[in-house]
Each structure stands twice: as C-alpha cells, then as structure tokens.
Amino acid sequence: MTKNTPQDASRQTTGDAHARYIPIHAGLYPIFLAAFVVVFVISNITASKGVTIGPLVTDGAFFLFPIAYIIGDVLAECYGFKATRVAIWTGFASALVAVLAFYVAIWLPAADFYENQEAFSTVLGLVPQIVAASLAGYAVGQLLNAWVLTTMKNRNANAPLWQRLMGSTVVGEFGDTLVFCLIAATAIGISTLSDLVNYVIVGFVWKTAMEAVLLPVTYRVVAWVKKREMRVKP
C-alpha cells in the first residue's frame, strides 16, 4: 500500500479547489444564431404596424426580413441544414417566450401614474397573431430556403454560389411571404382582397429584390466565415 506524500496531497487539494467549466469552442455560429433570433423576435413586434409607402402596402418589419434571410443563407451554406434548423427552432422558442412575457406584462395591474395601459395592450396584444404568422411563415420559408440551398449544394457543389442563394431565396421567400401575409393580414388592418394581393406581391418582390441587391454582401460574409471557421480549430 502506497502512502500519499505531502506534495501529492497538496496537488489534490489545489486541483479540487479549482472550479471546472465546460470549454467554449471558438466559432462564429453562436453569433449568427443570436443575430438570427434577435432579428426574428424584433420582427414580430415591428410587423404589427401596417405601413403604406405610396401605393405599396407592407408592414413595419419589411426592412428586417431580408436580413434574416441573409443570415439564414450564411448558416445554411456554411454550417448545413441541421445547424440552420436549430437556429430556426431557437428563434421560435424565443418568440413564444416574448409573447408570454408581453401578456404577463399586460395582465399585471398598471400603476396609478401609468397612463398608457390601453396603448400598451393594443400594440402588444396584436403580437400573438403576428408571431403565429411568423412561426408558420418561417417554418415554411426558412426551412425551404435552407433545404433548397443545401440540396443544390449537395447535388452540385461546384455550381456558382449565387445560383444556390437566389434559387433558395425565390422558393423560401415565396412560401414565407404567402403564409405570413395570409395569417397576419387582419392583424395589421388589411381587409380587402386587393390589399392582400398587394401585400403578398410587394413582400415577395421586396424581399427577393433586396437579397439580390445584397448578394455581394452575402458572398463576402460567406467567404469570410468559411475562411475563418476553417482556420479555427475546435
């Protein structure tokens, strides 16, 4: 039977006294996931406002959705369908938590000095319908976008990146826009078929056109992410 020396005891005591943590692997995926979720949650709030710009009918989140799709493209192109799906479901869960928090805040009794309870309830009370529209739209749009992009890449990895980006965008954006607009239209005050058609067409054309315009940005981000992630060791 061997005896522990004072040095061994010292090393054991010192080792046990140190807190242990799970190491974080370097990488950009968590940052893109967080950005994706933030854009998604904010969109659910700003989309509750109907917006008209000249003859165009849209909502207050029209400038955010192209950003979400660019992030989605980067996730799908660089990290694959499964990783993108995780980001989408994380966004869904975050949006549901936000809705619950809004309704708890509405339900709580207002202070005597607070004079905006009705406006607070009116604005945030619309969010659940918008969230339902976003959840359904994203479930169709983002998953279609990621699936089409990764499928095209798996079939022909040598094809130009712009073909995957635009092909997936057209399919994903149409599915997203159609489902979202059909559910969210009444929440923002759209009541006629012509306005609904306008809403769908404007949303689809705007989102697709914006991604086409921002294609050089997406190219550079994808190239930068691939270069950096390939260089960083897990």
Automatic annotation (TrEMBL):
Organism domain of life: Bacteria
Transmembrane segments: 21-42, 62-79, 86-110, 130-149, 170-190, 196-222
InterPro entries membership: YhhQ
Keyword tags: Cell membrane, Membrane, Transmembrane, Transmembrane helix, Transport
The keyword Transmembrane helix appears for this protein: yes
Function description: Involved in the import of queuosine (Q) precursors, required for Q precursor salvage.
Family the UniProt entry places it in: Belongs to the vitamin uptake transporter (VUT/ECF) (TC 2.A.88) family. Q precursor transporter subfamily.
NCBIfam families membership: queuosine precursor transporter
Protein name in the entry: Probable queuosine precursor transporter
Organism: Corynebacterium pseudodiphtheriticum
